User: Fold this.
Amino acid sequence: MKIKKYTCLYLLVSLLWVVSVYARADIAIVVHPENNSRFSDNDLKKIFLAKTKRFPSGKSASVLDQMAGSAIRKTFSRKMLNRSEKKLTAYWSRLIFTGKALPPKAVHDDREMMRLVGRNPKLIGYIDASSVDSTVRVIKVF
Assistant:
């Protein structure tokens, strides 16, 4: 009876692990469709961390962020910027305190992100890759 119980538990845990691995959503970094800049990962990090305010083409860049605490923001912070959301909040606090930069405006959802980015060539943001439509240009998926 014990073996059967542990076998069932093992199968359940294995199934949950497999589902969690395949259930994760990809993130797409998006810009206005007319933005033809080519971006390296380093370019993107500099833009999203306010270390530069220009796209690689030299045109002005402004960042949009997802809401604090959202799953997509946590994943983006960890995977793209190599920081936890807590460390990123501390980073922005330092920049604000020293007067070097203000944090990006946060949007409520992917639709709002695409609407704003699709209307303004200066904006860059990130959304769930499954939400992408023709109003934005995808520059990176991860």
